[in-house]
Amino acid sequence: MKYLILLLVIGVVALLLGFKRRTPPPVRRDDETKKKALTMVSCAECGLHLPVAEALPGRGGHFCSAEHRNAFEARQGGVQ
């Protein structure tokens, strides 16, 4: 019985060490990428804050979605 418990403990330790080794290394970003990822802008239509890397550019600023960009530009007379 004690050998079974010892074998179980060794198996759990080996399993935990195996999972620890499989974790991918952290992604290294240069300073330019960090600045771009951390820069926040607000949607010109609804005011939602989002990272500039995820924002859609438009004639009136940045937008959170294509629908908001189209609605804003239609109201401003930018879309025929």
TrEMBL record:
The species this protein was found in: Roseateles toxinivorans
Name of this chain's protein: Uncharacterized protein
